[in-house]
Amino acid sequence: MLVGLLGATIVLCNITCFTEKEEKKKWKEIKLFRKLEKEKMQELVEKKKEEAEPNKDEGRHYTVSVALPGSILDNAQSPELRTYLAGQIARACTIFCVDEIVVFDEQGEDSKTVEGEFEGIKKRGHACVQLARILQYLECPQYLRKSFFPKHQDLQFAGLLNPLDSPHHVRIDEESEYREGVVLVRPAKPGRGSFVNCGMRKEVQIDKKLEAGLRVTVRLEKQPSPDSKTRKGLVVSSHHPRTVSGLYWGYSVRLASCLSKCASLFDLLLSPRLPFISS
After folding, report:
1. Whole-angstrom Cα distance, residue 86 to residue 103?
2. Strand 100-104 and strand 65-69: pairing?
3. How far apart are CA 157 and CA 179, in angstroms?
4. Is residue 169 packed enough to be buried (19+ CB in 10 Å), middle (13-18) or exposed (0-12)?
5. What is the residue-level pLDDT of the chain in tens, covering all 279 positions?
6. Whether this model's pTM surpasses 0.85
7. How far is it, in rounded angstroms, from Cα 43 to Cα 50?
8. Beta carbons of 244 and 126 less than 8 angstroms apart
9. Which of the residues 183, 207, 216, 231 has the least number of beta carbons within 10 Å of its own beta carbon?
């Protein structure tokens, strides 16, 4: 009789312990479920806040320009040194994110050798033309230079210069949101855009039909499947990477007949020779 009572007591104790463990386990699961629900609610609230807030503008809307006299090349004693000096100027402007380089002629307003295209080799104003040509050559990505720069005496020693390594000088296998390219002479199907060489293993088909030989800035779409023969992209303005994404995207070169011609276009002028800042 006593043995039977002891056995029943042990069974009851085991059942009680088992139910307590189950209750604790269930309580832990309830607590964990409530915690997860709370975290999900917080995530939803944060997402709604982000959607309600306007997108932060990461772009840079101001531009930096530098004005240089073309006669700076006259101080160099040889054609190699003239080219090297122009390369140093280009490299410095790239490091400090200069958006425009203005090359002006110190001869004054009567000098007409710097007006129009970069043509002609004359004693007067030739330094301006040569400096502008070398600066443009270095700014252009390497895979586009053959398309835009034919053989010229001013670029005789340009191949010896170090590359600028600017953000828009993208390598063939490097991923980038934007790329510079040249429109190719290649027929496209009706209703589709032109094909562009962007220095990649695959050509890029843009959203517009453009004239062959134009230099364009392309915003690439997401990586397609490996089997696709081309990439897709959108044509954007040359200042789009700067104003939208905040990227430095090279500089432009402009010629001016005198300093006053370029100084009148800016909002703020800084000069080491002047004791004040004029706006």
Report:
1. 11
2. parallel
3. 27
4. buried
5. 544 444 545 554 555 555 666 777 778 888 888 888 878 877 777 777 666 555 556 788 888 999 888 888 888 888 899 999 999 999 999 999 999 999 988 776 444 444 444 343 344 447 888 999 999 999 999 999 999 999 888 898 998 898 898 999 999 988 889 999 999 988 888 888 899 999 998 899 998 898 999 999 999 988 777 777 888 999 999 999 999 988 999 999 988 888 777 766 666 666 555 444 443
6. no
7. 11
8. no
9. 207
Amino acid at 232: K
